[in-house]
Specification:
- The structure is a single chain.
- The protein has eleven helices and ten strands.
- The chain has about 375 residues and is an alpha/beta fold.
- The protein folds into three domains: about 1-50 and about 95-115, no CATH class; about 125-185, no CATH class; about 190-365, von Willebrand factor, type A domain (Rossmann fold, 3-Layer(aba) Sandwich).
- Strand 9, helix 10 (about 330-340) and strand 10 (about 345-350) form a beta-alpha-beta unit.
- Helix 6 (about 205-225) packs across helix 11.
- The protein is flat.
- Residues about 90-95 have low confidence and may be disordered.
Length: about 375
């Protein structure tokens, strides 16, 4: 019986997984999923799942193939409903909320978008040490004394000696009764990564554009955390000046000034220089803007900063241009002109929420 239950549970999980993968493109575009995120899981609504089963009718109604009609005639599906009728009193189709781990979600994303596994840069192997308790011993420091094992040993001794009194069950451990935890230090290689998000928050970047960035960054985070043991995120906003902020401020700040993209690239390069040596970290800068920059001179400065200070140290630099009615969109063309064919640069144009799906593949499809 237990085996049957486990088999049914596995089958149900496979059905749910199939439903999620079938609708993954729709889920990618929905920002409300992010609000249902826990520490390691996310709640996803899937259509009600009705497992196939036989349903028996009254014998009086006849059997298979009986009734009006000719062979080959299509079954009557009923009249189509145009939604103009009165309100009914019957239940409709409901969605089932299922919890999916972020790791499972990342696997589904990779399968659907055919994303290759990321290959960390050669020297980015850090050795992490972890203390693991592996047993008990009769010697050790008092800070590691195992109370339960010590008490059991003292109880066994008093019972063996015949000194245990059930009416006065007082157990006093002696030195020979004491037991101590033993440990072993394990080392394992880890690949650490940092994501540096940069976003234009000038007046031309509205709430809709920032929502697109917020949704896409969630999926980028989910995939990269699936690939690396340890990951950090840093956030830079810019208009004519750049500054580092927390995640909440990053997605809810709007300025009214101009745009100098070079200010963000300078701060990004400084963060890498100060905190993330290229020999120890996998580095992923992602920049989102509507493509409007202050001047051609500033664009030339951006190109130079990328060539000299950022690209030599990162796994990949990604630029996502979010379409805005107020932005010129010129910056994407400038990057295409200067970095065409450069495997370290991933460029994507995001016209609306439907474009997020393809943009994720543009950024992550190289396995860098």
């Amino acid at each position: 019986m237990t085996l049957r239950i486990k088999q049914d549970h596995v089958r149900f999980k496979d059905i749910v997984r199939g439903k999620i993968k079938q609708n993954l493109k729709k889920y990618v575009q929905k920002g409300e999923l992010i609000g249902k995120r826990g520490k390691d899981v996310i709640s996803i609504p899937v259509p009600s799942i009705d497992l196939p089963h036989f349903r028996f009718n009254d014998k009086q109604q006849g059997g298979v193939g009986q009734g009006e009609g000719e062979p080959g005639q299509p079954l009557n599906q009923g009249d189509p409903q145009d939604g103009s009728g009165k309100a009914g009193d019957q239940g409709g189709e409901h969605s089932l909320e299922v919890e999916v781990t972020l790791d499972e979600l990342a696997q589904m994303l990779g399968e659907e978008l055919h994303l290759p596994r990321i290959e960390p840069r050669g020297k980015h192997k850090l050795v992490a040490e972890k203390t693991r308790y592996v047993g008990v011993a009769p010697q050790g420091p008092e800070s590691l004394r195992h109370f339960k094992r010590t008490y059991k040993q003292a109880l066994k001794r008093t019972l063996a000696m015949g000194t245990y009194d059930p009416l006065n069950p007082r157990i006093v451990p002696i030195r020979e009764d004491k037991r101590f935890r033993t440990w072993r230090i394990q080392t394992r290689p880890e690949s650490n990564a940092v994501i540096i998000y940069m976003m234009d928050v000038s007046g031309s970047m509205g709430d809709e554009q920032k929502e697109i960035v917020r949704i896409e960054s969630f999926w980028l985070d989910t995939w990269l955390r699936h690939q690396y043991d340890g990951i950090e995120s840093r956030y830079i906003i810019h208009d004519a000046m750049a500054k580092e902020v927390d995640r909440e401020t990053f997605f809810h700040t709007r300025e009214s000034g101009g745009t100098m993209i070079s200010s963000a690239y300078k701060l990004c390069a400084q963060l890498i220089e100060d905190h993330y040596p290229a020999s120890e970290w996998n580095i992923y800068p992602f920049h989102f803007s509507d493509g409007d920059n202050w001047s051609a001179d500033d664009t030339r400065q951006c190109i130079q900063l990328l060539k000299d200070n950022i690209l030599p140290k990162v796994n990949m630099f990604a630029y996502g241009q979010v379409e805005s009615p107020y932005g010129s969109g010129q910056f994407l063309k400038d990057l295409e002109e200067n970095f065409d064919g450069d495997e370290r640069v991933a460029l994507s144009e995001i016209k609306d929420k439907e474009g997020i799906y393809q943009s994720i593949k543009d950024f992550l499809g190289r396995g860098k």
